[in-house]
Design a protein that fits this description.
Layout lengths: L1 E5 L3 E8 L9 E6 L4 E8 L4 H19 L1 H8 L7 H25 L7 E2 L1 E7 L2 E7 L3 E6 L2 E4 L6 H7 L5 H5 L20 E6 L5 E5 L1 H4 L7 H5 L5 H14 L6 E8 L6 H16 L9 H8 L3 E5 L4 E3 L7 E7 L2 E5 L2 E6 L4 E2 L13 E4 L3 E7 H10 L1 H43 L9
Helix pairs in contact: 1-3, 11-12
Length: 437
């Protein structure tokens, strides 16, 4: 077990246990107080090969990140040479290096053929979190009493559930519960899931191998954290539960706590939740999960516009979708007002896919807080996250379909009115009044 403090901002405790059935521990974990780096790896393979694979994985992650510490420092300092994508690429490179190293070892030693490991990594840089993930170990975020699984299991069971071939109840009793579809070291390279997100004071994280998550439901996690001030009690509690409920596998967990030194956690949580729920309230984002919304919020910018100021100008080319967080705006063509929009309303979504000039102007009536998403950032997001892109583009099709249907109905109504007028004149042979031509 390891406990430490990183400055006064992060507290953590890590613990691992062999469980009640296994005779050796193939799990490994890493906590690096200098790098703010946390890793859980669950090895697999006979003759202690799993233990070797997980040890190589955590060591390789640490080495690569340490060797590129200058990039992390550049990001921390806000340098233009180090973006969030650069940090995620660094994490992926570290995973790929571990993968190649483990695979090479297995090729050289017949007794280790087929060895591999899951790998779930959390790197914290100031107020940003970065995750690289392969396999079915997990990383959870606990924020404001709500738990969110930030990683997706790369397992046969999860694939069957997603495709509707298996219910959760059937999955719990399946003999294939431990079959993973991705692992580090089985092949020379592996597909890595990465994500970055804002970290708030008061946030807590749980990194865990499946020896724990098999026995603990997601909705049980908040009660395990409770009001415990000592994070050591949390990790011990998780291991005790897993062992009490069977302990059929090795059990590893790391708890990471962002200390709320200024007492602002509740206020910041409310603000983040307001922004997230406002964005998700628009048709484009309504089908996204909380985890997917975390990715979307990375490209959302906020701005406050004083009363009687333009946000969009008719005829000008625009590339942003705007969502009103608070306040009112009027949509108008010249001096002719079309509609007034308020909290939760949005405008300009077509600019995300179309460079056409704005068809109307939008001007604030009050001081207005708006959230905006640019076309450039939107396309970067859907390029980097194909599953998310599928949902977003499907939502776009629904929006366009709805607009087309409305337009057709309006045209149909207008056409009917014209036909009725023509038919009335024909039936009743209406003559123009005297003086009309």
């Amino acid at each position: 077990m390891t406990e430490t403090r990183i400055g006064e901002n992060i507290h953590f405790w890590a613990a691992t246990d062999v469980g009640k059935v296994r005779d050796h521990n193939e799990d490994n974990f890493l906590v690096d107080k200098a790098l703010n780096l946390f890793v859980v790896a669950d090895g697999m393979g006979g003759h202690a090969a799993g233990e070797v694979a997980s040890a190589v994985a955590v060591r390789s992650m640490r080495e690569v990140i340490q060797q590129n510490k200058d990039l992390i420092e550049a990001f921390r300092e806000g340098s233009q040479i180090a973006s969030t994508r650069d940090v995620l690429n660094l994490l992926e490179h570290a995973v790929q290096k571990a993968c190649a190293e483990i695979h090479e070892m297995a090729e050289e030693d017949m007794t280790k053929r087929g060895m591999g490991t899951t790998l779930s990594t959390l790197l914290v840089i100031d107020n940003r979190g970065f995750i690289a993930h392969v396999g079915d170990s997990r990383i959870y975020l606990l924020r404001g009493g709500r738990v969110v699984q930030l990683t997706e299991d790369h397992s046969l069971i999860n694939e069957l559930i997603k495709r509707g071939k298996l219910t959760q109840e059937e999955a719990d009793n399946s003999p294939y519960k431990n079959a993973v579809t991705r692992a580090v070291g089985i092949y020379q390279s592996v597909e890595v899931d990465t994500i970055d997100f804002e970290v708030l004071p008061g946030d807590q994280f749980l990194l865990a191998s499946d020896g724990l998550t098999t026995y603990v439901a997601n909705d049980e996690i908040p009660s395990m954290f409770g009001d415990r001030k000592d994070v050591k009690q949390i990790t011990k509690g998780f291991i005790d539960i897993a062992n009490t409920r069977g302990g059929k596998d090795n059990i590893t967990n790391i708890v990471v706590r962002m200390v709320d030194a200024e007492g602002r956690a509740e206020e910041l949580n409310r603000e983040v939740n307001l922004k997230m729920e406002t964005v998700r309230g628009t048709p484009l984002f309504k089908y996204l999960s909380y985890k997917e919304m975390v990715s979307v919020m990375n490209i959302v910018e906020g701005m406050t516009v004083p009363a009687d100021n333009p946000i969009v100008v008719e005829g000008e080319e625009g590339e942003e979708l705007f969502i009103i967080l608070s306040g009112r705006v009027k949509v108008h063509k010249g001096e002719t007002s079309i509609v007034t929009l308020g909290d939760g309303d949005h405008f300009g979504e077509m600019a995300l896919i179309d460079k056409a000039p704005r068809s109307a102007s939008v001007t604030t009536l009050d001081q207005t807080r708006v959230l905006k998403i640019s076309r450039t950032d939107f396309f970067k997001l859907i390029r980097n996250e194909p599953p998310l892109a599928t949902k977003l583009l499907w939502s776009f099709l629904q929006v366009l379909s709805s607009r087309l249907r409305t337009t057709n109905e309006e045209l149909s109504d207008s056409r009917s009115e014209i036909e009725i007028e023509d038919l009335t004149e024909e039936l009743f042979e209406i003559e123009p009044l005297e003086g009309e031509s």
